Amino acid sequence: MPKTTEQLAKDFRKLSPEKQRFILQKLKKKKSEIISAVKIISRPDDIPLSFAQQRLWFLDQLEGPNAAYTIPVALKIIGKLNVPVLEQSLNKIIQRHESLRTVFDTKNGMPVQLISLELILMIKILDIQSMPDTERNTEMNRLIDEEDLKPFDLSNGPLIRAKLLKLESEEHVFLLTIHHIIYDGWSIGIMLNELSTFYQAYLKEEDYSFQELPIQYADYAIQQHEHFEGDFLQKQSAYWKNQLADIPAVLGIPTDKPHPTERTYQGSRVSFTLSLELSQKLKDLSKREGVTLFMMLLTAFAILLSRYSSQRDVLIGSPIAARNRSELESLIGLFINTLVLRIDLSVNQSFQGLLRQVKRTVLDAYAHQDIPFEKLVEALEPERDMSRTPLYQVGFTLQNIPVSNFDIPGLSFVPLETDKLTAKFDLNLIMSETESGLGGILEYNTDIFHAETIQRMSIHLQNLLNNVIQYPEQLIFSISFLSRAEEDKLLFDWNDTKKNYSDTGFIHQLFELKAEQIPSAVAVIFNDLEITYKDLNFRSNQLAHYMKLRTVGSESVVGVYMERSIELVVSLLAILKCGGVYVPLDPDYPDERTSFMVEDSDVELVLVQEKYMNDFDNKEIDLICVDRDLHLISQENRHNLSVDFQPDNLAYIIYTSGSTGRPKGAMNTHRGMYNRLLWMQDFCRLNENDRVLQKTPFSFDVSVWEFFLPLMTGATLVVAEPEGHKDSSYLVNLIFEKEINIIHFVPSMLRAFLENREIRKCSSLKQVICSGEALPFDLQKRFFDCLNAELYNLYGPTEAAVDVTYHHCVKNTKHGIVPIGRPIHNTSIYILDEYFYPIPIGALGELYIGGLNVARGYYNRADLTAEKFIPDPFSDEKGARLYKTGDLVRFLPDGEIEYIGRIDSQVKIRGFRIELGEIEAILCQHESIREVVVMACEDHPGNRQLVAYYTGNDTVTDDELRNYLKTNLPDYMIPQFFHELEKMPLTTNGKIDRKRLPKPDGSYSRVEYVEPCSETEKSLADIWVGVLKLDRVGTNDNFFQIGGHSLLAIQVMSRIHEQFQLKLPVRTLFDEPTIDGLAGQIEKLSKAVKSASIELDEDREEGEI
What we know:
Layout: H1 5-14, H2 17-29, H3 51-63, E1 70-79, H4 83-96, E2 102-107, E3 110-115, E4 124-127, H5 133-149, E5 160-168, E6 171-179, H6 185-203, H7 217-227, H8 230-243, E7 267-273, H9 276-289, H10 293-309, E8 313-320, E9 337-344, H11 351-367, H12 373-380, E10 394-399, E11 411-416, E12 427-434, E13 437-445, H13 451-470, H14 484-491, H15 507-517, E14 522-526, E15 529-532, H16 533-549, E16 557-561, H17 566-577, E17 581-584, H18 591-600, E18 605-608, E19 623-625, H19 630-633, E20 650-656, E21 664-669, H20 670-684, E22 691-694, H21 702-713, E23 716-719, H22 728-738, E24 742-745, H23 747-754, E25 767-770, H24 777-786, E26 790-795, E27 805-808, E28 822-823, E29 827-832, E30 845-851, E31 857-858, H25 862-868, E32 869-871, E33 881-891, E34 897-902, E35 906-909, E36 912-915, H26 916-923, E37 929-940, E38 943-952, H27 958-966, E39 977-980, H28 1015-1028, H29 1046-1060, H30 1067-1071, H31 1075-1104
Parallel strand pairs: 4-5, 10-12, 14-23, 16-17, 16-18, 18-19, 22-23, 24-25, 25-26, 38-39
Antiparallel strand pairs: 1-6, 1-11, 2-3, 5-6, 7-13, 8-9, 12-13, 14-15, 20-21, 21-31, 26-27, 27-28, 29-30, 30-33, 32-33, 33-34, 35-36, 37-38
């Protein structure tokens, strides 16, 4: 029984490299055993396009003519050039190859080839020799770029241009530009070889004839359609369906600009050359490992892409010549095919191990290379995305086609590298062998990447290759590709935050100092009550002494169960003074949660207000009622306590939500709190004339600085009444009446605050601090429109003493984002991958926090503490630790940090990895939207859908929001459902409570059949039924979800043209893929045409009169 292709491929992999090369050479001399030779057969009246041509033709129809698919060749010719002979030679080639005389048209909705019997091409000569040298060089480059950017008309042609720039009498630049639909990289070599041969023959006035071509490109296209049917296609596609099952839809390399919603081709390139020594060592290593140079470079590139994107499943498209039959080798035309190579980097194996894996992948792909890429896309049916190429967005090529195999006596030729200003992919690496070593070009889309980003990437690739040849046995995620200088910048320079604060200082002692210096100054205002620094110090001392009688001492855990009041301020100070650790217990919390925190934190004593005493009736816990027992407390000593404090003693424990539903208590030290508050004072510069509003629930860590920063600096602490933080009108009046200077807002609350009609009354505000959520860019703009104050965006988890980074917001910035900034004093910020290696600038990684602010850990949770608080590998200090935040961020080029979102908030829907925060940020910019939350919800098991919850200023329809998002985001990021809420559910800390958002039910995703009603809808339905071969279609059915694809879309638009006498661009169907939407576009255009016709008739009548 003969072996299958897969079995032959496995046998082939077992052979030595020498035997593999020998067999490959033999196979090249034979016809392919998989596909029979192309034979000249009778041609139909309508010659079809090859599958590769169909794709390029469709893109031209969809996007209009552009220069992305032109292939330019620029040759500098030195010597006495005979231009008429060059032109004669070029026309001989055009006559010899039908493909160069081909244009494309549509018949019955299908594209066809039209071959001209004759085409005479004139070489256009531009004489620029009179220009000065520098100007001439500039003009030459401009003309080359101009030629490269000039598109072709596929319907009218010709699809080949030739131009000659005359620099001097014996120095010319020959520009040959051909559309990719009739030409490929291999064809360049054929063209130049034939041009050389004909030129020399005609120069000698000889009539040279090549052996007649056995077939023409049209014959190949015809047989390709006949061949790729039935069993062959099924066998090939079966392999690829298995190989590319469940692939990620997008390779998430971070971009410098938002990815356009439609595919663009603006491009540029960065060139580099590997040294001869490195190039040779790579070849030597390839030989030793039994792989090709292509496999070696592909493996290295895949590692780099994985490190940049944090994805372990990487897809790279690589072109192959696809001329696996002898009769195709001398034919000019588009034969190139693309292999989608899937590299699995989920295991941190050695480079050598991955190299062997990549070798298997490549050889298997070669064994199944005959299925056209276009047919592969049809078979796999990936989710439609108009902004990117299907299946892959990054390409890799190792060129082995000689483009200058061109020898004419008396002439010398220098290939000029054109500055290709278009890009077919997001990123494309092209490697080739040169005399100086391996040359590389990184071609990139300038609509998404900056030049400096790609320049860095090219350097990283070179660094990676240098490390690979030295240590090929090293694990792939330990291969360093950052330069020493770059690593120093990321790890040390941008973390140079050292500031000498006292190692023995404590916040309550700074307060005590102020009580001595300004005893009669007002310390706290609450409603109509005021208390001076002297009295506040006396009362807190008395309570501290009273607690000591209850054995409260160093690191005794004391619960505080109160609403905002002066008693609350007294209590917090008293606990710190006697060495205790305070645990906020919010009376608004459910009784079950409060009981858990009291038990979990081993609370020894609870300070409580009389109104809440009943809440502890059934609890065996020691209580002090601070208002009822005031007569007892006031008998205690009023002097400051003498307690032996250590900076590493705990100051407070604040509970945060746990992923398992069990809250966890973050233990923060005096050292961390002291460092955080002194840093803030360095930029706030508070004094006794300032007033700070305390409005954040004290179970939220922002309250720490709200309480203590004013009291340690001599400012006045104004305490908002209970629940007052939720009422923007109350806050506006309070700020106005009490002349508040500094206030904090969670961004969602800031938005509501800024919408208050009397916001202009808040002119006393000097500094507004934002933290707790990502600060949207539009909200920053709104802030500066409303208030004349400074705005700071801070970031920090409860596990690191409130905040660890800061960004001073700037009015009129055009960045489009609000960074979280840089580390505060004595704090280090690292962005690392999963193996704790630093991430390059611009790439995504997890944020780790080091320095004085890092908490001790979680109370009574040694397991979780060990998981989240890890040894700091970058610090020389004994016992230094990092906190693993779970936040996804990246460094911007200036060292500021951009917050992307929670790592666990990234969702994957239909293969696309989606950051929900990106959708929220765009929706927030809509004028009718106040707040928005986007979630991935299951309406029934296995069916995840994006749902946008929002509150609005005005009535806005789902379609309006959907269309607004379409201008900024690709289709797969558009929520399926929009749910308007009267107000967002909030946690007690003022953050949006996602758990309380309503869940979608199964009816949300059900597309019910809606019968076409209007004549336009009925006509469209008939067209769809005919093209899609369906029994019926409804007005809400999506064309692409019921069997439609690009070529069928062409047929639909062709029939619409015949039916309605309207010429709609193909893109209309992609933008409006339902009968309902498409009918609307047709009716709109029909009215416009009719209106224009009436106006024209009126103009004619006036002319006749």
